[in-house]
């Protein structure tokens, strides 16, 4: 006997399976949820691509919002970000320096209670067209030298010129441009909230062996 889709759909086990799926969908708040068993790998890749595209749009909006903020807000933001990334350490501290007398350093992260390991930050809230040039890196390096620092992070909402990037490499200064900044903010949930947090599961075949 040829097994057709109609005959499969008439089987009691199949109908029970469909009813259970429908019930789960209603409980999850989706009345028209599609049976994931019919979704192939290409479609899953498309779903993932849509999520990435959505998050990229949020990242763009994030940078635009930051560019509209006050410079002091941005200084606190980058300090919050590096703290979330773990640079403060378990017992360290983060200090945003006063704007009037920061000596070219916008924030200081002490990675231990004694301050023997310290990260110095420079934050420039620029529009996209205002590209950070080499002189800004030279100035930041001068500020680092005055405090005998061996590490610095320069963060901007715009981008860096090629000469600025080359100079930073020579000075061991880490550069974070607007695109990388927004990506890190999404990753460490700074300035954003998780809208949905679902898991796509599959059977663990090893468990049943």
Description:
This protein has 209 residues and is α/β, with parallel strands linked by helices. The chain has seven helices and five strands. The protein has a five-stranded mixed β-sheet with strand order 1-2-3-4-5, with helices on both faces. Helix 3 packs across helix 7 and helix 5 (134-146) runs parallel beside helix 6. It starts with a helix and ends in a 22-residue tail after the last helix. The mean pLDDT is 85. It holds the Pfam family Mrr_cat. Residues 67-185 form the Restriction endonuclease type IV Mrr domain. One of its GO terms (biological process) is DNA restriction-modification system. One of its GO terms (molecular function) is restriction endodeoxyribonuclease activity.
How many helical stretches? 7
Number of strands: 5
Which bin fits the share of residues in helices?
Answer: 40-55%
**SSE arrangement, N to C:** HHHHEEEHEHEH
CATH top-level class of the largest domain: Alpha Beta
Q: The CATH topology of the largest domain is what?
A: Trna Endonuclease, Chain: A, domain 1
Could you say which overall geometry the principal axes of the C-alpha atoms support?
Answer: elongated
CATH architecture annotation name of the largest domain: 3-Layer(aba) Sandwich
Strand order of the largest sheet: 1-2-3-4-5
Could you give the distance between the termini?
A: 32 Å
Please indicate the percent range of residues in DSSP E strands (runs of 2 or more). 5-15%
Structural class: alpha/beta
How is the biggest beta sheet arranged? 5 strands, mixed
Uncertain runs: none
GO biological process, one term: DNA restriction-modification system
GO molecular function: DNA binding; restriction endodeoxyribonuclease activity
Domain Restriction endonuclease type IV Mrr: 67-185
Pfam families: Mrr_cat (PF04471)
